[in-house]
Amino acid sequence: MVVHETTPFNAEPPLAVLARADITPVSDFYSRNHGPVPKIEPRDWRLSVNGLVERELTLTYDELTSHFTPHTLIATLQCAGNRRAGFNEIEEIEGEDPWRGGATSTAQWRGTRLADVLSAAGVTDPGGLHVAFAAPDVSELASPPQEYGSSIPLSKALSPEVLLAWEMNGEPLPEVHGGPVRVVVPGYIGARSVKWVTAITVQDKPSDNYFQAQAYHVLPADADPETTEPSAGISLSSIALNSEILVPEDGASVSAGRQTVRGYAFAGDGRFIERVDVSLDGGRSWRQAELQAQRSPWSWRMWSCDADLAPGGVEIVARAWDSSGTMQPESAAKLWNPKGYANNSWPRARVTVCE
Ligand code: MTE
Question: Start and end of every Moybdenum cofactor oxidoreductase dimerisation domain (predicted)?
Answer without folding.
Answer: 239-353
